[in-house]
Amino acid sequence: MKYIVVTGGVLSGLGKGITASSIGRLLKARGLKVTAVKIDPYVNCDAGTMNPFEHGEVFVLDDGGEADLDLGNYERFLDVELGRDNNITTGKVYRAVIEKERRGEYLGKTVQIVPHVTTEIRDRIKRAANSSGADVCLIEAGGTVGDIESMPFLEALRQLRREVGEANVAFVHCTLVPVMGTVGEQKTKPTQHSVSALRAIGIDPDMLVCRSEEPLDPKVKEKLALFCDVDPGAVISAPDARTIYEVPQLLEAQGVADWLIERLGLQQRAKPADLQAWTRYTERILNPRHTVHVAVVGKYTQLADAYLSISEAFRHAGAELWTRVEVTWVDAEQFERGAKPADVLGKYHAILVPGGFGSRGAEGKIKAIQHAREAKVPYLGICFGFQLAVCEYARHVLGIGKANSTEIDPGTPDPVIDILPEQRSVQEKGGTMRLGGSPILVKEGTLAHRLYGEAVIRERHRHRYEVNPEYIPRLEKAGLVFSGKHTNGVLMEIAELPEHPYFIGGQFHPEFKSRPERPAPLFLGLVEAALKRQTKAA
Ligand code: GLN
């Protein structure tokens, strides 16, 4: 097993995750099998209990792990399926160490950060790496060098190098090279400081990836190599890219993969680079022939990262159709304050209501859905957006005026959406929803079947509520088609309206499985329908 550790310096938000995923993609293009481990130094056990408005979306893995959004980037760039063990947090590590201590596994010992916590970290990294069967394991150490919280992790990574041998671990350090003054000089000092902070913990970087607005001046590269004691061929320039999907090519042009392959002695296993599919995809992202406008009606509209996988899924679907999907985040609450959905949403070619929790904005979302249904605007409902579409249908087509989800109105006389039976007794909040991938039976002759082209699909979930089985016969009689059901036959997974150009919702999150080369079918269908609507209007 070979390890590539990616650390960050100077400041956060440098795109360490994208750098690491891009390196992974380049190695994959060389025929190597790559996996990834993301280290998040926060004390939460997982990202599931964090507010997406502050932290960005919670990415759901197939095994039900609720992870940081970077795991999504790894899955998309590497086209792999990761699991909860690929995300290590301080919470997970300490919880395991404390449980071991209580079981008496360290009996007689004083339990300390070094060696007990760092050994737990190393064991977790090795376990995730080895169980994947990969050639290379990328490890992204979240946070910035010098943070109190990341200290035990960096110490564990230093120990890992000693344990598995220098030849098997490469350290890549991402920094910022800012431009100062009127002459526009690229300044190397922040990188120098960051590298010395890393050295102080015992880690010598093998490669520097320097973020900057413009490509690094060759002289600046030379200076960095000399002052930071890094091979000149391993000082890499990472200027601002037009799209994140361009980063692998930017790194490839500077020989990043070749350098790392040689450093880790992978020459025998590596093949010539094949970036064809990736380049084809990037081409389409950069040179769209059409544009459609989509409204995403939700609650967390201030932070695009709160719906990162949705944005990505639109990009993947758009690329397939040479279409740029212009997404506008529309605040649902305005429709509760009197704004008319037709006025606000009239100019969009499609509407999406994403996953969500709680009552805030729910009535506004229902109004938006009613507009989509009645004005025949293509609609995709995801999880909460699916549940609310069922409520909307019950209210306005079946005439059950107070139909609601018990999540929004616990006292509703018509709980069309109700808590899952197994959720009734659940008290703890962390990791207790219905989570992860499960199989769905798709009914033949439906829109869902045409889109997926398969009778059994697998999608990822994250919810506590479901369509109340008591209302299903009435909903179906009134024209709502449940075209996807859980293989247990009880849980409704997909609903659609045959009389509508495109109206479909899923109890799951299709965005988590969307890939550049394999867009999620429900997104592809929506963009296709949006394009049709746009052509008709033009
Ligand atoms: N709040 C809803 C539930 O718990 C929907 C969840 C979601 O959209 N992810 O069932």
Overview of the molecule:
This protein folds into two domains: 2-280, P-loop containing nucleotide triphosphate hydrolases (Rossmann fold, 3-Layer(aba) Sandwich), CATH 3.40.50; 289-537, Rossmann fold, CATH 3.40.50.880. The model has no long low-confidence stretch (mean pLDDT 94). It has 18 helices and 23 strands. The protein starts with a strand and ends with a helix. It has 538 residues and is of the alpha/beta class. The longest helix is centred in the first third of the chain and has 20 residues, at 113-132. It is globular and about 75 Å long. Helices cover 37% and strands 22% of the residues. The strands form five sheets. It has a nine-stranded mixed sheet with strand order 13-12-14-15-23-22-21-18-19, with helices on both faces. A seven-stranded parallel sheet has the order 5-2-6-1-7-10-11, sandwiched between helices. Helix 1 (16-29) packs parallel to helix 3 and helix 14 (362-374) crosses helix 15 (384-396). Bound molecules: glutamine (GLN). Glutamine (GLN) is lined by residues 355-357, 383-384, 387, 407, 462-465. Residues 355-357, 383-384, 387, 407, 462-465 line the site of glutamine.
Topology:
Layout (H helix, E strand, L loop, with lengths): L1 E7 L7 H14 L4 E7 L11 H4 L3 E2 L5 E2 L1 H10 L8 E3 H14 L9 H20 L3 E6 L9 H14 L4 E8 L2 E2 L4 E2 L2 H12 L6 E6 L5 H11 L6 E5 L7 H6 L3 H8 L12 H11 L3 E9 L9 H13 L2 E9 L9 H5 L4 E4 L8 H13 L4 E4 L1 H13 L7 E2 L9 E5 L14 E9 L4 H6 L3 E8 L1 E3 L4 H6 L3 E6 L5 E5 L6 E4 L14 H17 L1
Parallel strand pairs: 1-6, 1-7, 2-5, 2-6, 7-10, 10-11, 12-13, 12-14, 14-15, 15-23, 16-17
Antiparallel strand pairs: 3-4, 8-9, 17-20, 18-19, 18-21, 21-22, 22-23
Helix pairs in contact: 1-3, 4-5, 5-6, 11-12, 12-18, 14-15
Bound molecules: glutamine.
Glutamine (GLN) binds next to helix 15 and strand 19.
